[in-house]
């Protein structure tokens, strides 16, 4: 990587997601469907390329790749990104789902790309544009390695991509050319989480975990942890469509009872599993990720539209 700009070392959480690459479980995919107005008269590729040029110029994470060197992992900046190698366009072979039906074609694509590795010197993200015959509606699938971005970053990507699409319509109408090869921006990579927020662990916690796991290990006989897992394993993705009236009512009920939607999903999954498990199992353990952005917005310029871990 001698001809690539060295950015910074990977932080502990980023190292964690890089280590998970051994399990083939490090890709994140966020998709959204876009409907273009009739004023968008050029080919979809023109608008997508122009919008991505804007996003790449504003986010250092989109041109950063992790590279292992001796006992350290460093992020390096790619000098440029060739969109023809990162973005693919394909037409739907089935009609877009209607009447709240699952998008089976999307699920099949996600299953393939969920375990497709990212290899340097290509970017650690890719985009699939699933088009329809009328070219006015398309589904954009943004897939990225968890070491360069988190789930909220995927949401931020689509929010800023939507804005960039509107801007692309204006610039392309004025005759501005579309570029396929985008030079990487000279922006600093956002700092890792541990550098901007204290993530210390108390000695009491460490001693408690050591005692529980090494001195006096105990396994609750009522806790179901699933069967032994083996690698390699396959991922099966099924889409569940929740109608808007149902999701709105659920959100309102959660607020009334001072609960979160995450806790409701945990409870629903637990009740469903326990209904089919042997009677001796009475407990499950639920774990979810928590975004720390609410504590970082005032530090290092991190906002809701920032892309990183």
TrEMBL record:
GO MF annotation, one: N-acetyltransferase activity
Organism: Aspergillus niger
Any Pfam family the entry gives: AATase
Taxonomy, superkingdom: Eukaryota
PANTHER family listed in its UniProt record: ALCOHOL O-ACETYLTRANSFERASE 1-RELATED
Entry coiled-coil feature ranges: none
Protein name, as recorded: Similar to An14g01950
């Amino acid at each position: 990587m001698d001809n690539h700009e060295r950015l910074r070392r990977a932080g502990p959480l980023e190292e964690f997601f890089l280590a998970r690459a051994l399990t083939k479980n490090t890709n994140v995919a966020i998709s959204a469907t876009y409907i273009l107005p009739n004023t968008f008269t050029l080919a979809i590729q023109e608008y997508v390329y122009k919008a991505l040029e804007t996003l790449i110029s504003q986010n250092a994470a989109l041109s950063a790749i992790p590279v292992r060197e001796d006992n350290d992992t460093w992020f390096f900046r790619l000098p440029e990104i060739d969109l023809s190698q990162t973005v693919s366009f394909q037409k739907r072979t089935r009609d877009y789902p209607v009447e709240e039906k699952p998008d089976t074609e999307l699920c099949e694509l996600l299953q393939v790309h969920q375990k497709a590795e990212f290899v340097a010197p290509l970017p650690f993200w890719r985009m699939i544009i699933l088009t329809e015959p009328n070219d006015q509606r398309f589904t954009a699938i943004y897939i990225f390695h968890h070491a360069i971005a988190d789930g909220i970053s995927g949401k931020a990507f689509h929010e800023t991509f939507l804005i960039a699409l509107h801007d692309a319509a204006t610039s392309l109408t004025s005759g501005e050319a579309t570029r396929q090869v985008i030079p990487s921006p000279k922006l600093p990579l956002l700092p890792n989480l541990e550098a901007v927020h204290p993530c210390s662990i108390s000695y009491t916690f460490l001693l408690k975990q050591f005692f529980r796991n090494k001195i006096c290990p105990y396994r609750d006989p009522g806790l179901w942890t699933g069967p032994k897992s083996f690698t390699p394993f396959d991922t099966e993705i099924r889409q569940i469509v929740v109608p808007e009236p149902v999701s709105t009512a659920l959100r309102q009920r959660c607020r009334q009872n001072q609960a979160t939607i995450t806790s409701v999903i945990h409870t629903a999954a637990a009740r469903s599993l326990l209904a089919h498990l042997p009677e001796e199992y009475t407990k499950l353990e639920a774990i979810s990720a928590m975004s720390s952005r609410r504590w970082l917005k005032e530090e290092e310029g991190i906002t809701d539209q920032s892309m990183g871990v």
